[in-house]
Write a structure and sequence with these properties.
Helices cover 40% and strands 33% of the residues. It is an alpha+beta fold. This is Phosphatidylinositol glycan anchor biosynthesis class H.
Length: 151
């Protein structure tokens, strides 16, 4: 039976430690970059837009920092109203625009509340401008079928 005893030089131990640390550092950098790409692609909203067409519906588009876009369309027949809602968040009152969806079973009821501009969080004065524009279009939609039925 032979027993071998390896004697390591301090320089080889130092090289081994540097190599191990650089592998750990490389892995940490890779994981961080991968997480950043995922964040930019799926989470970080760069721009939000709202397009209201009285005869068709409401289109909500979110553009992400990666360039990806997410679009949701709500048919006008589902829209009961557009409102400004308020909530308390972190000891502060915040305002946000919401679309109230009509309950198909109960015409007076609301089946769902769809919040808008959740990432950009515009100020109240901006929300009021958007709200008024939406209300104008919704009002035109309500009066349009009545005027066409009179003809």
């Amino acid at each position: 039976v032979s027993i071998s005893l390896h004697v390591y030089q301090p320089s080889s131990v130092f090289a081994w430690l540097v190599l191990q640390n650089s592998m750990v550092l490389s892995a940490a950098i890779f994981i961080t970059l991968f997480g950043l790409i995922i964040y930019l692609h799926f989470v970080k909203v760069d721009q939000e837009s709202l397009l209201v067409i009285g005869s068709l519906g409401i289109q909500v588009t979110s553009s992400y920092a990666s360039g990806r876009e997410s679009t949701t369309f709500i048919e006008m027949g589902q829209v009961k109203d557009v409102v400004i809602n308020e909530a308390i968040h972190m000891q502060k009152v915040i305002y946000y625009l919401c679309i109230l969806l009509q309950d198909p079973g109960d015409p007076q009821g609301v089946s769902e509340v769809v919040p808008l501009f959740q990432s950009s969080k515009p100020r109240l004065d901006c929300l009021i401008e958007v709200y008024r524009s939406c209300q104008e279009i919704l009002e035109q939609r309500k009066t349009a079928p009545q005027s066409s039925g009179i003809k």
